[in-house]
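Support request, please re-run this one:
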Amino acid sequence: MGAVAVGVADPETADDWAAYLAVMPVGAETAAMLPILQTGQLSGAGRIDALRAFERHAEWIQAQQVRVLAQLEDDPLPCIPGRRDERADYETTVEHVACALRLSHTSAASRLRDARELTGIFDRTLNLLEEGKIHYMQAHAVVDTTANCTEEAARRVETLALPLMPEQSVSATRKALRRAVLKADPEGADQRHQRAREDRAVSHTPAEEGMAWWNAYLPAEDVARMDAAIDTHAQAIKTEDDERTLDQRRADALVDLVNRNTQTPGDLVQLNRTAPTGRSAPLLQITVSFDTLIGASNDPAELKGYGPITAGQARALAHEPGSI
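Re-run finished. Output below.
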């Protein structure tokens, strides 16, 4: 960690300025001082402080962008001057934003949606961004994770997640937000999960060099079962002179498990019960409160390797035959 700016009343060296700007409230005045941070004059610790200073000001600038985007959302550019057409005006605005920020149409629309929500129900999150305390992608995660929640539930999610966000990475924030959604709106989360299950599907995408990507959209507990089964089988098929990497063996194990069950598809469902070589069956590890387990609470549970799952998912897994 770099030098601490506390006590640097009159910064003199480049390192002093880096330490000062790394912790001072950000704004136009401090942004004007950033050219002082000439990297050639900084020590190693000073460069770390400079990175923090630049990052905090980048977040401040992104907050200013959010406010301008929100104004465009409220007052879109006209598609045909003198005539209002809500849909056409919105699409015109998206295209102008995409061009200005060198984004795709989809990304530009996402930025406008984020701006609308951040200047509306998530103003506390926007304030943290403007203060340089969180990353823009954390603010985006708040909007994205709560997209299917009611406004009341979304506000509760923000209240639960906001205090820890300045100390979290983007991935940690997303995980905390998923848990907050399950805690703030357990019944809604369970209903959305049931609807999402209806969209489960398998797809593949051609790739270069005679390869392809194989994808599956499945309930988290089924993915955890498959991962456990693949890991178990990957270990079982390893030989003494095996030069394959773990990733290669896992890929081969998946193909082997699917191919060996093409004639008896019902056996595949039992992969989480009995390992193919007589080894112990792969396990799913779920951490759940006793109150949730008996239905007295709907607090989320934790599925190892995935993260938070709904109370309903946890109870369903706990009550399956053979569960401990």
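The CA atoms of residues 295 and 315 lie 8 Å apart. The first strand starts at residue 201 and ends at 206.
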